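Postdoc handover notes: sequence design on the structure in folder B. Input tokens:
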């Protein structure tokens, strides 16, 4: 009987440990820094003037933010003084989304492990009629 109680105690402790994930799992979601959906990149293009430098291969450059909004790709020109700020916010959102994906996978694994433990606890505690 002692081993049955010991097993039950160990299973309960494992269940408690799985139920309370480490703070690192949710840390990316607790920040208050702004996020921007999209990708920042340099757009290079030619104009139609034959005497322009772009006709010789020196394309016009504009830094833009692009994102899919409502199923349509949108493009915004970023003012020079805000390029790094917007780039950082877009990168921060990319990392946020990656953390979200990892968190969901970890939750699924954790829940599966918890269900196995709950089933094992039920099996130990269930008595024959």
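Designed sequence:
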């Amino acid at each position: 009987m002692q081993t049955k109680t010991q097993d039950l105690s160990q299973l309960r402790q494992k269940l408690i440990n799985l139920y309370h994930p480490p703070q690192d799992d949710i840390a990316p979601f607790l920040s208050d820094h702004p996020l921007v959906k999209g990708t920042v990149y340099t757009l290079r293009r030619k104009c139609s003037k034959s005497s322009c430098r772009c006709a010789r291969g020196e394309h016009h450059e504009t830094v833009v933010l692009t994102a899919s909004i409502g199923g349509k790709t949108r493009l915004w020109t970023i003012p020079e003084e805000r390029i790094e700020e917007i780039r950082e916010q877009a990168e921060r959102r990319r990392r946020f989304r990656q953390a979200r994906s990892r968190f969901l996978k970890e939750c699924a694994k954790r829940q599966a492990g918890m269900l196995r433990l709950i089933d094992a606890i039920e099996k130990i505690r269930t008595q024959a009629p």
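Context for whoever picks this up: The longest strand covers residues 60-69. Don't rerun without checking with the PI first.
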